[in-house]
Amino acid sequence: MVLFFSIFFLFLELGSRAFHLSKQDIFWFLFTLLTVISIVGIIFIKSLISYYLDKFSSIDRISKETLHELSTPIATIKANCDILTKNSQNEKELIRIDRISKASQRLMELYYELEWMIKNDSGEQPKTKVMLDELIEDLIEDFMQKANDKNIKIDSYCNSFLLEIDHFGLKKTISNIIDNAIKYADTNSTISISLESKILTVTNHGIEINPDDLLTIFDKYYRGEHSQKGYGIGLYAVKTFCDKNGIPISINSQNKITVVELKFTRF
Asked: How far apart are alpha carbons 14 and 9 in whole angstroms?
C-alpha cells in the first residue's frame, strides 16, 4: 500500500512537470485512470471466475451422468454371473465366473464410493438411520479373510446403537480404521473392537506409532515410518468425516498397543 501511494505521488510530480499541468489536474487524471483500470480488472476477474464455475459445473454434471450410466452394465454383469453360476456344473467355469463376479462386485463398490465422493464434494450428505453395532459386525465379517491371513483374532463386543448419519461415509471411516488395525497388527495377535456408551474403540497389538507422528497422523498425504502402500489419505479422510459430523477421534499408541477411539456421544 505504501509503495502504491509512493508511485502514485511520483507520477503526480513528474506529470505536473512534464505537461505543465497543476497537480490537481494530474491527480484527477490518474485517479480516473486507476478507477477505469480497477473496474475493467474487476469485470475481467468476474468473467474469469464465471467461466471456470461454468466449466466446473459442466464437469460435475458430466461426472454424475457418466457415473449413473456405469451402474447399469455393472449390475447386468453381476446378474448374469449369478445366472451362469446356477446353470453351470463345470468346476473350472465356476471358478472363472466367481472371479468375474468378484471383479464386478469390486466395480460396484468403486461406483458407490465415487458417487459418495461427488455428492460429498458438492455438499450433499444424505443421512439415514444406521444400526452402528450391525454395521461394525458386517465390516468385521468383510475383513475376516484378511485377518485370517495373518492369523489375527478379532474380538468384538458392541452394544445396540441407532443413529442418523451419512451411512456410506461412516462405513468408509470405520472400514479404514479396522483395515489399519489389521495391517499394522502383529501376526498371531488379537484385535479388540468394542462399542459401549456410544464410544467405538479399536485396539491392536503391533507396530507402535511414533509420538511425533501422532501430531501429524491426520494430515493429508501423511506417511509414517512403517506405512505400507497407499497415498496417505486414509486417516485424513477419516478425520475430515469425523469433524464434519461432530465425532471426536483420538489415537493413542504406547508399549506396542494402539487404541483408536471415536465418540458418538452427540447422537
From this structure: 9
- In degrees rounded to 5, what are phi and psi of residue 234? -60, -60
CATH 3.30.565.10 residue ranges of the chain are: 128-263
Beta bridge partners of 252: 259
C-alpha to C-alpha distance for 194 and 202, rounded to whole angstroms: 7
pTM of this structure: 0.64
CATH number of 1-124: 1.10.287.130
**pLDDT value at position 74?**
74
Question: What is 128-263's CATH number, 3.80.10.10, 2.60.120.620, 1.10.10.10, 3.30.565.10?
Answer: 3.30.565.10
How far is 109 from 67, CA to CA, in rounded Å? Answer: 12
Instruction: Convert the pLDDT of each residue in 41-78 to its tens digit.
Output: 666 676 666 655 565 555 566 666 666 666 777 778 77
Q: Where in the chain is the domain with CATH 1.10.287.130?
A: 1-124
Q: Which secondary-structure segment (H or E) carries 201?
A: strand 199-205
Per-residue model confidence (pLDDT) at position 54: 61
Per DSSP, the three-state class of 192 is strand
Residues 6+ apart with CB under 8 A from 60: 118, 122
